[in-house]
Amino acid sequence: xxxxxxxxxxxxxxxxxxxxxxxxxxxxxxxxxxxxxxxxxxxxxxxxxxxxxxxxxxxxxxxxxxxxxxxxxxxxxxxxxxxxxxxxxxxxxxxxxxxxxxxxxxxxxxxxxxxxxxxxxxxxxxxxxxxxxxxxxxxxxxxxxxxxxxxxxxxxxxxxxx
Length: 162
What we know:
By secondary structure, the chain is α+β, with helices and mostly antiparallel strands. The chain is about 25% helix and about 50% strand.
């Protein structure tokens, strides 16, 4: 089977942009990566987050990647399959690390993303994104580390005090 290599690369760029945008709180751009009717389902060790609609997804991401967080999301090993010239699925391996200074916890883990993509008006978009944890370690922060650079502190949403 031959793969449409240009579309394959465009889907990779879409997923890479998603990771970059959430880690840098680029809410404006992350909105452009999803279809209006998109859905997500993220299953972790202690949570299940499921929501439908681009606006709700973007709002949740904005509140999660706030000014009191440090985030790292790295996806690799893409397995992209095309159902048609305008529909594809993807499986990705995620490695992530998240420091929540607000709640004083570090989450370290990996997941398998299972996504659906559609091509609309010549542009690939995320229609559905889901992951289930391969492992997740949540560690309380007893002493705040010596943070010498903190991008989200400047660019993330400022949340009201707890």
